[in-house]
Amino acid sequence: MAPVSNGEASAAGRVSDETLMTRVAAGEEELYGELYERHFGGVARFAMRVFSMNAHDAEEAAQTVFMKVYGAAGRYDVKAKFTSYLYRVARNECLKMVAKKRPIYAGAGGSDETGASRTENAARRMEAEELGERIAQVFGTLSIEQRTAVQLRDGEGMSYEQIAATMDATVAAVNTWIHRGRKSFAARFRENYGDVYAV
Amino acid sequence: MSTPCDRFEPMLSALLDGELSSDDASEVRGHLDDCESCRGEFEELRSAAGLIATGAPTFRIRPWSEIAPASREQAPAKPAEFVPTKSRKARALDRRVSRGTPWTRYAAAAAVVLAAAAVYMTSFRGGEPRATVAWTEGDLYAVAGGDESPLDAERGPLAPEAVLRTGQGRSELALPGGVAIEMNSGSRVRLAGVDGRGLARRIYLESGQATARVPEGYGSFKMVYPSGLVAVTGTEFDVRLEGSSRAEVTTFRGSVKVSGGGRTVDLVAGMSVVARRGDGPGEPVKVSLLERSAWRRSDRRQELATSMLDRPYFVESVPEGQRRVLVDFEDPDDIKYFGDSTVPERFASRSDAFRLDGPRRVQGRGALEFPADVGLSSLEYASVKGLPKDWTGWRWMRFEVFNPTQSPVPSIIALKDRGHADAGDRYNRVYVLDPGWNRIEVDLADVAAGRIDGRKGEYGKGIDLSNMHHMTYGLPESAMAELGGVKFALDFIRLEGRLE
């Protein structure tokens, strides 16, 4: 189920992301830790799922993203949804990382494996029963726009408008990416691993 | 004639996500009550969304206090202008802030800067979409009058008509709507605004070189340069300027129209044309796409992505009778369909015939690995049991190819019928391979008529589909020379789409 909270103030009195970030910008820098803890996992998962990074690179990317957002706190616009801003930075950072150095399809395993051990690990992964790996594998076959939109929607619970702001696209495009992305995911998952429902 | 499903099916995800107005939502729900097929799909979408939402790993988070810099001023980002039309006073304030002055001392200034920042971040308020910098290898600047400000990827949205210049190193821009513009070093572009749907429709190339990648189904997009323009839909092309009176346009994928001097020329993939101010485009010539895309690779030596094991492809099922598999390389003997030592004498003298190792198991699927410098040649269809020589009645021939490199690589397929098996000029067509798996789709109606992308061209002669002889597939000679023994892979050759 998609995460329920998206930084909104709740009945229990939790402070919104936007309020926190504004206070950080105004000088209460220690509050940033709360934002970091709320969203670090989401950003790292985003890097992993959408850009096919391994866990180590995804964590590194997420840390860089949070550092940059922290450093640019003074330019945060209160009216902007914090997560839209955060994931825009994340997306650009990941694009940069992927374009510059790493093979686009590095997959899990890290860059210090030899060719032979990579083959073995990959073979073992291919036979793995683990649901999470199967999901990631099929998810990886979607286009990058579809992966971005679907992960922000189903992984992070963002609205279409927020996703559109993050991706600099129209809501209609976001809708198409999500719809076709889910359809392709369902068809391919079923084709290769049996019924989607059966899981 | 469209059915209710045609109208409502595309709205199912929006319904699931609560993104429809209550009127639209009731309409769609009403349809779901009546339509079992859409109900089934709705449940599938819900299951897919559920799967994607779960099953992602959790991360061990290092406490922020451990990694936080001592103060915010020491954090990596340095505020810089991305919209160069700020007043001098606002710019001065920004410079003082960015030099690391403690925030609290400028409480009043802070309010001003925050307000100024608000003006420039309009896209986050759900305003008009803006272009952004996707990545930059070296220096990228926003130019306004005599002023230049350096840009980096996270500097946020660009002004709608920003002028951007690269120094050393390449940069890539993401235009609203999904067009990607890759700029070579020493290039300059000017952005244009968006249309009513928030999509970028043109860009101006003022100097240097840029490649545009336009998504399928995007509609029109134009790159305008001093002596003409290139108009495209769903394609990839490159423009290189020499001064302001000469432009060289190369098409990598699809086809483009190059206009100037009152002339318009169609340029298909694999061709290039020079356009001069006043005269417009000349005659297209065939070029090496590998050479033309060389500037987009950061290193002439290809870095191999981890092999095909890391990037699977999946094939959707099709209705009964809609697919005929020609070769799927599941059987180790499938190698016999291509040039190999087990093949009859006619191939025995080809040195490349001995360089194929046979199908390799990839994720439970067999695929044929071949070195870049081997031209694959299939056997005569008639001589091998099971391979049909009659391809009539089918719409497409498709197969999957894996490109292990990090940049686009052209490939060429040639199809020959029995009447012209030895002729060098039957149906030939270039397909550009992206990194990773690619689906090659050959439109058999085009093959029969000798058309390339719907147009008659000198490289396509009509083929007798009822009397197929063989096909060849491989990379052009320049790619063979550059890539040598780098291993590509081929799989799942099939006919699909039964006609009538």
Task: Summarize model confidence as the mean pLDDT of chain A.
Answer: 75
Cα distance spanning the termini of chain B: 18 Å
Largest sheet of chain B: 9 strands, antiparallel
- Per DSSP, what share of the residues of chain B sits in E-state strands of 2 or more residues? 25-35%
Label the structural class of chain B.
Answer: alpha+beta
What is the CA-atom radius of gyration of chain A, in angstroms? 18 Å
- Average of the residue pLDDT scores of chain B: 71
Euclidean distance between termini CA atoms of chain A: 14 Å
The general outline of chain B is globular
**Total beta strand runs of chain A:** 0
Structural class of chain A: mainly alpha
The total strand number of chain B stands at: 30
Low-confidence segments of chain A, ≥5 residues, pLDDT <50?
A: 1-12, 101-129
* Helix content class of chain B: 10-25%
What's the quaternary structure here?
Answer: heterodimer
Strand content of chain A: under 5%
Q: Determine the most extensive contact between two protein chains.
A: A-B, 104 and 94 residues
> Uncertain runs of chain B with pLDDT below 50, 5 residues or more?
76-126, 298-312, 340-355, 379-385
Structure notes:
The complex is a heterodimer of chains A (199) and B (500). Chain A is 65% helix and 0% strand. Chain A has nine helices and no strands. In chain A, helix 2 crosses helix 4. Chain B is an alpha+beta fold and 500 residues long. Chain B is built from eleven helices and 30 strands. In chain B, the strands form five sheets. In chain B, strands 1, 5, 6, 9, 12, 13, 16, 17 and 18 form a nine-stranded antiparallel beta sheet that branches. A nine-stranded mixed beta sheet of chain B has the order 3-2-4-7-8-10-11-14-15, with no helix packed on it. Chain B is globular, with a radius of gyration of 27 Å. At the A-B interface, helix 2, helix 3, helix 4, helix 5 and helix 6 of A face helix 2, helix 4, helix 5, helix 7 and strand 1 of B.
